[in-house]
Amino acid sequence: MHLFLALFILAVNPSICKGKDEKKCDVVPKNNYIEVGSDINITCLTCGHGKIYWTLDTSRLNSSHTVLSLRNFTHQSATVQCHSTDSQQVIGGTTINTYSKPCNISCILHQLNQTTEGQPVVFTCKWDHRIDPKLDVNYTVLHSSAQREICKTRETTCMVEGVIKSMLPVIIITVRAKTTNWEVDSDTREFPPAHIRKMIPPHLSVTSFADHLLVEWKRELIKQKCRCEVKYNETKLNKALKREEHGNMTIEQVESCSHYTVSVRCALLEPAPWSDWSQEKTVLTELNKNRVRLRLWRKVAEPQKNGVRKVHAMWKEIPSTCRGTFTYTIEPTPYKESMMRGGNYTETLCGESGCDVEVNQDAHRINLNMFHNEILLVVNAVHVPAIGESLPQVTDIQTSALEGVILVTWKAPIQPVSGYMIDWTHDGNQYNWKETNYTNATLSGLLDKKPYNVTVTPLFVDKTGHGTQALQICSRVGGPGNVTIHINKTNAKNALVSWDVKSQEECSGDVVKYIVFYRKLDRLELWLNVTAIGTEQAISLEDLLPDTQYVFYVKATAATGTTKSTEMFFKTKRFGRWFITTLVVCGGVVIILVLSLGLGCAISWKKFREKPVPNPGCSSLALWPPREEGTGSIWQFNNPSESVCDRVYTEESQKTSTSPLGSGLNPNPAFYQTDEYIDPDMASAPETDPEERLKPAKMQHRSSPNDSIEPLLPENSPCSPYRSQTSAENPGKRPNKQNKHSPVKQPDRKTPVMVYVTLDMFEQNQCR
Fold this sequence. Notes:
Elements: H1 2-21, E1 26-28, E2 32-35, E3 38-45, E4 52-56, E5 59-60, E6 67-73, E7 77-84, E8 90-99, E9 103-110, E10 122-128, E11 138-143, E12 148-153, E13 157-161, E14 171-178, E15 183-185, E16 189-191, H2 193-196, E17 203-208, E18 213-218, E19 226-232, E20 235-241, E21 247-251, E22 259-268, E23 281-284, E24 297-300, E25 309-314, E26 326-334, H3 335-340, E27 348-350, E28 354-359, E29 364-372, E30 375-384, E31 395-402, E32 405-411, E33 419-425, E34 431-436, E35 440-443, E36 451-459, E37 468-469, E38 473-474, E39 482-490, E40 495-502, E41 511-520, E42 528-531, E43 538-541, E44 549-558, E45 561-564, E46 568-571, H4 577-610, H5 651-656, H6 669-672, H7 680-684, H8 694-699
Subcellular location: Membrane
Membrane topology: Single-pass type I membrane protein
Organism: Champsocephalus gunnari
């Protein structure tokens, strides 16, 4: 028993000792929360892993010590890990989170009702806190050194009423932020009540006059100095006030018949906050008769045949906001008479901003009278030179445009001038004009991309010179205009495309070059381009693939911009023009050959159809005389002048005639010697009807031994190619044996045999 107990103790004791001496491999401390900008030390328990290194998130730190010191740590959240250098394994790690304290604390003392004067009873503070918005933070506002809580909130603002007294010499404020993991206090702020007191808005009144505005306001009665700020339209004016002093201010240089909006705010001396702006007051100024400037000017048209000229007088109208009734009249007066101040001339009632009158070729003075409520208010005049009058004018007028503004320069005349009048128009109806004392002017407020005509006229004391008009210039030049593309012709390997450029704007840039972009329809990324020569508006796209779809567009480039056309598709042909031409030529040749062959066949067939067909009914029967030895078997049948019915040799006539074969022909008698079978029935048959004569001619093909074949006509005369047909005696029946030629000697005299010769089988009455 004791032995067993001793063995058990020895077995358990090493395990206990091992667990006691074994160290845990990790990084401490864990999941820290520190204030932004503070320091922290982190320790790595290596457990004998040898050398180590540290990483901050994914960056390796330059430290191999087991204790890592991080100074001025500003990361919002970061992971720090300890690694073994030998095994590259992570020994341990920790997460460091930071927090910040509330800052930029501002507080004010004010009235809850901004229209009631008295001691402020509301205390409001605001602050900033840079934290994760997802965090749930509780804020507490602490007052004075005793850290008395005056407000709790989860927002970065806090308002309390009746807690802070404005009579205190100083107000001490601290803001505390707290979460489940950390707690931090802001820096303490001290606020003198006079520096944080907000005044109520002043009570404002505004009075308008013809040449100024009178602004008056009543501020909150505080026995302290204050400053106030007056705002009208876009202008602000400041004024300092003494203790318990109300404010007033005069605004000069106001426009006649114009609306002005005025408001005021006040504050104690800096750094006290401004009060809210007072309620705005809007007033309309009166018409200032001393500052009415009509800015009268005129445009003189070309004279008519009778010397009468049309003068368009124009002036700046009185604003419609001016109260009262305004009327205008124009009175043209000859210049010489106007200088003598005599005579009455007809006045023309005009509109509010322009009027047309006619004058002759002499110099005139155009007088403009403006009446306000039927009382003459303003008189203005402008000079119109006489036709051909020698007056100075400006020279070398130059214009240029930049970003919608036209700059005009010119050279002054030799004579001294009092100024220059520049007028400009884009349509000849609406004019703008301005006066200057310099030899340059800038024209602004122009319509975009419109051409303008600019005229400069020198002014003298009581006259005007001749105007000089500059070349037409555009306020701004646009792009080249819209590009419309066309497909003129497509072949197998090229395509002819063209385009037109039409601009809907009057001022479009001149095209410098055209670039045609094209590609295969299935190759979206590969664009090819070719540039047209000069400003040509057509080009041939070469080296295309047959039977392939392409897409193309044209980009027109000018000095002022570029314009791109819409895309258009086309497809090249399967075969080229040379192939089609060759095919057409070969096809044409084949067609011509076929037509020629057909025409020849038709002509031959027609001739064949028109050739007379022999009629057996017109035949006759006669004997053919036997041939003599030495006669030939060939004769001429080519005498077309002799009719086939001219000569018929009957059996009787042939007996007495001399054979024409006796001379000239020496046939081989052995060649023509035959041995034939003669049917005795055919020899004794009676003479048949002429219509029946055709039958034996068709049935009997073999001739008897006594047949004789002689030429019907002499050798030297034309002959008929037919044989005489008649009946003959059949000597009797002979054995039916095959004909054979035997080279035996021809006997001296041949017995006539029956043969069939067609004399005339044409349907002609002369044959019978």
